[in-house]
Amino acid sequence: MARSTVKTEITGKVWKITAEKGQRLAEDEPIVILESMKMEIPVAAPISCTVIDIVVNEGDSVTEGDVIAHIES
Question: Which domain, by its residues, includes 58?
């Protein structure tokens, strides 16, 4: 099993966390939803995986390249 991180591709605010620790996700399922410029933008699992840890909280500000979660395939 390989561990990796999921990073943001934009700057914004964590609007909603949609996954939880230990949850199994399919590729492209959202982990968190960011709010940026009044738009809701999901940050999705890049592969089918299990969420090991989510390192942001709702309301946190993030910038491009910030780690939001650790996953295991």
Answer: 3-72
Query: Residue 59: which pLDDT band, with cuts at 50, 70 and 90?
Result: very high
CA distance 51 to 71: 5
Count of the separate structural domains present in the chain: 1
Identify residue 5 by its one-letter amino acid code: T
Q: Residue 61: which of 7, 14, 2, 21 has the closest Cα?
A: 14
Residues in the chain: 73
Tell me: the pLDDT tens digits for 32-41? Answer: 999 999 999 9
Q: What is the CA radius of gyration of the chain?
A: 11
**pTM, two decimal places:** 0.92
